[in-house]
Amino acid sequence: MARAGRWLAIPAGAMLLLWPAFLNGYPLLFSDTGAFLHQTLGPLVIWDKPHVYGPLLHAFHGRITLWGPALAQGLAISWLLWLVQRALRGAAAPGLHLLACAGAAALTTAPFTVALLMPDVFAPAVLLALLLLAFARDALSRAEAAGLVALGTVGIASHLSHLPLAAAVVALAALLARRPGPVLRAALPVALAVLLLVVTNLWGHGRAALSPHGATFALARLQADGPAAAVIRDRCPAAGWYLCAFADRLPMDSDAFLWAPDSPVNRAPDGTPRFLGGALLSAEAGAIVGETLRVRPLEVAAAMLRNTLSQLGMATAGDTLVADHLAAAVRPRIAEGFPARELAAYDAALQPRGELAGAVAPFLWPHAPVLLAGAALALLAWWRAARAGEARRLGLVLGVLVGVSANAFATGALSKPHLRYEARILWLVPVVAALALAPRRR
Questions:
Q1: Distances (CA, A) of 288 to 75, 154, 186, 190, 215
Q2: Quick one: how far is CA 206 from the chain centroid?
Q3: pLDDT per residue over 226-268, tens digit each?
Q4: Cis ω on the peptide bond leading into residue 27 (within 30° of 0)?
Q5: Using CA atoms, how far apart are residues 282 and 39, in angstroms rounded to an integer?
Q6: In sequence order, what are the residues at sequence separation of 6 or more whose Cβ sits closer than 8 angstroms to the Cβ of residue 160?
């Protein structure tokens, strides 16, 4: 009966977490979803994205329907919440699991991440997987532990912002456990993810690197904040950098710097378009970033702190609901790689027609008060666990707080604050805190 309850509760929890997709009539999409689909439908190696999430999508859609990956994401998050409940309470109850999933679905931004076909779903998955491996291994079977290692590995490799997040969990395990076992268990998926990234980049780009062109993104952030733009002005024209020709246009918004057709990255001084301009700029970007860190470290640190704090305050579902660029970036991929009925289902959905944001607006108001209440509950759960000397509970609760902070740094300070970046993971605070304070089963 207990096993049957689990096998029914986990899929049921997944359905609850996917409700925005059912309302929409199709899984939620983002402009970058098209690039991930193109990784295998093209096939095409995308210069700015790890070659991981696209093949994962393909494994579950099989050129048939994108509902396959959406259901897989829902099941993964539901399964992780089941394991977290069992670790915190000593046993998992199907009824409480459904209540936790329903609460997350109705009161937090969780469903807008779970139903979105983007690597964002792996941010909470990576955090929970590594915390369970580090602090609750004795509550897991061997198969469950192996599943968490696999999920953590592909999750970390799917987006570079997950590497700092995972590193923060490993550091926390070292600080709290002070013995090698928990640290090694948390570090194993990180090491495997690094290997996966190096191998796929060697295959796709001919370079054994974590991110062959990551310096371009670092430069985009540093010039937008000002320090790198100042270095370019100070060193040019003597430095001979390509960007010297654009010194008077910097700083500019980091997204515009990377993607605008007329930006210095994508259009040469004579007006000639630069195909794969971000990749072409990466070597010079590395030199400018290094020089900026050397001569203006305090300015860089101050900007990173500002952006991290800004990211912590941005946790709404807004930019996952719009139709921006879907017609150009996603619809052609569905048209070229899927049956006609799949394209018809996409066209009939609310999001491509610009109607999803209005449809879900009445359901968004609880998010802010629930997050504030969740923060208070998390502090209470932390205090209780520390007072009682409960290492497992302390590690899981404190780990979530550390994880959401590390995520804000990895996305806000190293990329750019965006609504979905913190919304994808901050919902764990009230959910895990509530489970940590729930009565334990003996």
A1: 44, 31, 34, 29, 9
A2: 26
A3: 999 999 999 999 999 999 999 999 999 999 999 999 999 999 9
A4: no
A5: 21
A6: 50, 210, 211, 214
